[in-house]
Design brief:
heterodimer; A: alpha/beta; nine-stranded mixed beta sheet; about 25% helix; B: about 325 residues; alpha/beta; 8 helices; 18 strands; binds flavin-adenine dinucleotide; binds adenosine monophosphate
């Protein structure tokens, strides 16, 4: 079985986000990058499916500037067989149709049986790239997948619905699934894996991008109207203030 | 056609987020001088159309088709695609529900229309709509501009508009047909179910001590249990703590977990991303402790403390245990 995983590089959750000078994106120099959270789960699921099926390969695909090679290498270190870097100068495409078209152009000749991606990117949060790509590749699709089961005649996935509900969905292959976090325990790369990753194939392709049809005009910080009382001082002082709020305002003591 | 709102059903009625979408459409229509239509499809289409007919709308389109009697992403996408191709709406608006996440990207691919997803607001700048969207899990927001000539697909996050603000009036119902064959539907879904959790019912709790990824590691949870005990409250959590297997899923609060409204919600090491916030924003009082002064949870909190939970929580517990 041939499995592709889309892995996107996004600012890590601990990064401080500052706007760039003209307020059109963040100041990229100030952030540390990591693999998008749900993509990491998608990668692990791909590796587990590969191991259970045998005679399979996992290909990690990422689009972006050169820095994204770091997470492709990370995927290779965790056990993916090959990587593809679709080179794109700007940080991210804000138009998923364009992004998916690029992925489709590069991935179509590979004839993947399964494409796994994250359910949503932690930077743009559009939540659509994997499904659009599935359409472009003529695949079955499912979103918010929390469990996968290969069957003799296709695939069965458990899909998360709202408020703690689930549903099993059956489909034929090839399929593109968007993966929800928490469905497995992502592995850490071993030292041997890290060494071995250097020797694995990482193919570079150049993206040819049309004009985006949805774009970011301005980025800003949003403030609500709600008045928040910030408690200040030493730890003992804030604890004291909080206890008094528990008594007088919140009335739980 | 100007604007089309696609309705989703919830327990046989129009989903609250579809009502909010109608409000957004009426606002957009008012600002740009455009007419608003709605589309009802699926098993409950007739009931939804009836309900919508008392709103101020240009028309209520009713699609009844055997292939849409159970939801499938392929079937629903195909139906809406055919309506778009026939009616050529400028804007098609949805509530950003799980179902919309599931099938609207397909419409985007099939009609080559951009999908501006998960917006929290809408502004008109120089006669053109600009959509406001969260970036980086609500840490920043951005103005998103459609650059498209043709149809634009739009979805709004819960509570971006108020359902109560729908303008009433009358919307004439007209039946429309779509042509869908069974082999166009590539997935088959089984009946929805709930996990037999046997877990806690957090909705009944007066005090919830809720912990997020900021706890760092499983062993650190001890300080949270101690605090919950001292406050006689229940322990709740954000998704990453459940994903890591440190707490059972019945403790998860948010869009895929429980929705709670206790007297006190203590958000500890939780950033405040929307999928968590929808589950706890109804709390009477919210106290947030977070080491990042820019964390979005502080926008929502009644009381905020910028600091390390590992230092503050044990002291708070001590102060509560005389
Ligand atoms: C479809 C969908 C459904 C989802 N459903 C849910 C859901 O039901 N519930 C849910 O919670 N999430 C849900 N999520 C995930 C959600 O988007 C966020 O990723 C998640 O809520 C983040 O959890 P967090 O705030 O604990 O972690 P983070 O966003 O990583 O925040 C951790 C916070 O801890 C702070 N911190 C770190 N260390 C310390 C310290 N020592 N002291 C004080 N503060 C510290 C950091 O400053 C940061 O603000 C869903 C996502 C999607 C896409
Ligand atoms: N530039 C990219 N490189 C690799 N994967 C991507 C990229 N953009 C989107 N994806 C994948 O698509 C998923 C959903 O992204 P989005 O539609 O932007 O929310 C991500 O979690 C990734 O798996």
């Amino acid at each position: 079985m041939k499995i592709a995983v889309l892995v996107k590089q996004v600012p890590g959750g601990e990064s401080t986000l500052r706007l760039n000078q003209n307020g059109t994106w963040i100041n990229e120099d100030a952030v540390t990058y990591e693999m998008n959270e749900s993509d990491n789960y998608a990668l692990e699921e791909a590796l587990q499916i590969r191991d259970s099926v045998g005679d399979s390969e996992v290909v990690a695909v990422s689009m972006g500037p050169d820095r994204v090679q770091k997470i492709i290498r990370e995927a290779l270190a965790k056990g993916a067989e090959r990587g593809i870097h679709i080179q794109m100068p700007q940080a991210g495409l804000t138009d998923s149709l364009l992004a998916a078209r690029e992925f489709a152009a590069v991935m179509k000749p590979e004839k993947f049986d399964l494409v796994l991606s994250g359910l949503q990117s932690d930077d743009l949060g559009l939540g659509q790239t994997g499904v659009i790509l599935g359409e472009f590749l003529g695949m079955s699709t499912a979103t918010l997948v929390v469990e996968t089961k290969l069957e003799t005649d296709g695939l069965k996935v458990k899909q998360e619905l709202e408020a703690g509900w689930f549903q099993w969905v059956k489909m034929s292959l090839p399929a593109s699934l968007t993966i929800q976090s928490g469905l497995n325990t992502p592995r850490y790369p071993s030292l041997k894996g890290i060494m071995g990753a250097k020797k694995k194939e990482l193919k570079l392709v150049t993206a040819e991008v049309d004009k985006a049809r949805q774009s970011i005009g301005k980025v800003f910080t949003q403030h609500s109207e709600k008045k928040t009382i910030m408690l200040d001082g030493s730890i003992d002082q804030v604890v004291e203030q909080l206890i008094s709020a528990f008594k007088t305002d919140i009335k739980i003591l | 056609m100007d604007i089309l709102v696609v309705l989703e059903a919830s327990k046989g009625l129009i989903h609250r987020m579809s009502l909010e979408a109608i409000t957004s459409a009426q606002y957009l229509g008012h600002e740009l001088g455009l007419k608003v239509n709605v589309l009802a499809l699926g098993k409950d289409a007739k009931a939804l159309a009836q309900q919508a007919s008392s709103f101020g709308l240009e028309s209520v389109m009713l699609v009844e088709n055997e292939q849409l009697s159970t939801y499938s992403a392929d079937g629903f996408a195909e139906a809406v695609k055919q309506i778009i191709e026939k009616e050529k709406p400028a804007y098609v608006i949805f509530g950003h529900t799980y179902q919309v996440r599931d099938y609207v990207p397909k419409i985007s691919a099939r009609t080559n229309s951009p999908f501006l997803a998960d917006n929290i607001g809408l502004k008109i700048i120089k006669g053109k709509p600009v959509f406001i969207k969260h970036l980086f899990n609500a840490k920043l927001a951005a103005e998103i501009e459609p650059q498209s000539e043709g149809t634009c697909l739009i979805s709004f996050q819960s509570a971006a508009f108020q359902a109560e603000n729908i303008k009433s009036g009358s919307g004439p119902i007209k039946s429309v047909t779509v042509d869908i064959s069974e082999d166009q539907i590539k997935t088959r879904s089984e009946a929805p179910f709930r996990e037999e959790a046997g877990g806690v019912d957090l909705t009944a709790a007066d005090i919830i001590v809720s912990i997020g990824r900021g706890i760092g590691k499983e062993e650190n949870l001890a300080i949270i249990y101690d605090l919950a005990k001292a406050l006689k409250g229940e322990v709740g959590s954000s998704r990453p703590v459940v994903d890591a297997g440190w707490l059972p899923s019945s403790r998860q609060i948010g869009s895929s977990g429980q929705t709670v409204s206790p007297k006190l919600y203590l958000a500890l090491g939780i950033s405040g991303s929307i999928q968590h916030v929808v589950g706890m924003k109804g709390s009477k009082k919210i106290v947030a402790i977070n080491k990042d002064s820019d964390a979005p949870i502080f926008e929502l909190a009644d009381y905020g403390i910028v600091g390390d939970i590992m230092e503050i929580v044990p002291k708070l517990t001590d102060a509560l245990n005389p």
